[in-house]
Amino acid sequence: MKTRVFMTFRFFVTLLILASASLAASLAFGLTLTQTWPFILASAGAAGLHAGRRTRQRFSASFTVPSLVFLFLAAFFSLFSFRLIPMRLKDFVVAYWLPLLAACLALTGAAALALRRLRDVGTKPGRRP
Asked: Are residues 107 and 51 in the same domain?
């Protein structure tokens, strides 16, 4: 229980500091909140990595994977928010939904195979758990 409270405290304090700093910097550069909202996602991802590392004293999958998903989503949405891709997100999804679905399924399958191989390597006869 004590570890969970400290992990939550570390996460929210780090999130508050990073989100405030990113919003202050974006306002200093003259960007609007509608452009800079992906920075909040990136702040959540970085806060999750920090809280997981400080709580468990190592990177664990239960903290690292969701944090990396937040960072990936922040980078993806930033492309549309800062107009680096000249179309709206809705138009992009309508036009490229099939390749996006195929890429997601391929990544999921590759991750499942990698996890299975890592699990099988760790349980070979003669190895200590």
From this structure: no
Kindly give, in sequence order, each residue whose CB lies less than 8 Å from that of residue 107, ignoring residues fewer than 6 positions away. none
70 and 108 share one domain: no
Domain that holds residue 103: 87-129
Q: Tell me if 35 sits within 8 A of 26, measured CB to CB.
A: yes
pLDDT tens digits, residue range 88-118? 888 988 898 898 889 989 988 888 888 788 7
Q: Which of 107, 37, 36, 97 is nearest to 69 (CA)?
A: 107
The alpha-helical segments, DSSP class H, found in 29-88 are 33-36, 38-56, 61-81
- Kindly state whether residues 81 and 119 are assigned to the same domain: no
pLDDT of 123 higher than 70: no
